[in-house]
Amino acid sequence: MKQDRARRTRERILDAAAQEFAANGYVHTTMQGVAGRIGMTKGALYGRFDSKEALARALLGHGRAKLDELRARDGPEGCPLRALRRFTVELSQCLHQDVRLRAAFRLLLDGTEADSPSYRLVELLTEHLTGLIVRAQDRGLLSGEHAPRDIGQLLLAVAFSVQYAPFLLSGRGSGEWAEFAWGRIARSLAPAEAVS
């Protein structure tokens, strides 16, 4: 019972910290702001996390674990084009729904722990997408006209844009918008013989 309550408290703290970091960035987030979000004293918060850096590390760790989970679904035997679509759409949905993942990327943008190899989330994403794109190009499913890394970065831009994209105005949900964008990109990258 006591362990369960401690776990729930930790989860509430991480959610509050994620909301603060995602909204305010590392520099402008304070332990007082995190504690205030969940009606906790700053002293009680320090009893569980000894610093803002510790909160940031926990969120960066969550981001890494989430991305590892998404990447693990794409084995070498599957269709790389389907894997690209699935990964782009699921990443878009995760970024829209998972405030901890959004916070992890905001922390990286702010330069927090960005030089730590275990937190190189953008590089991991780009490498994963690039590998899938190379496989798709090798199988003739995508045109070889564009560099795989460039296409990967474009797909990342699609995934990250879900938070700010006009789908909010057009009534599309995050997954629906990502599917729409993926469809347009996939058609434009199809080999010429597939288009004609």
- What percent strand? under 5%
* Whole-angstrom Rg: 19 Å
Do you know the CATH architecture of the domain at 59-195? Orthogonal Bundle
CATH class of the domain at 59-195: Mainly Alpha
How many helices? The count is: 11
Biggest sheet statistics:
none
- Which structural class should the secondary elements be placed in? mainly alpha
CATH topology of the domain at 59-195: Tetracycline Repressor, domain 2
Enumerate the spans where pLDDT stays under 50 for 5 or more consecutive residues: none
Q: Please name the fourth-level CATH homologous superfamily of the domain at 59-195.
A: Tetracycline Repressor, domain 2
> Average pLDDT across residues?
86
Q: What are the secondary-structure elements, in order, as H or E?
A: HHHHHHHHHHH
From the N-terminal CA to the C-terminal CA, the straight-line distance is 64 Å
Number of strands: 0
Report the helical percentage.
over 70%
Shape: elongated
Give your account of this protein's structure.
With 196 residues, this protein is mostly helical. It has a domain at 59-195: Tetracycline Repressor, domain 2 (Orthogonal Bundle). The protein has 11 helices and no strands. It has helices at residues 2-28, 31-37, 42-48, 52-72, 80-97, 99-109, 121-138, 148-161, 167-170, 174-189, 192-195. The protein is elongated and about 65 Å long. The protein starts with a helix and ends with a helix. The model has no long low-confidence stretch (mean pLDDT 86).
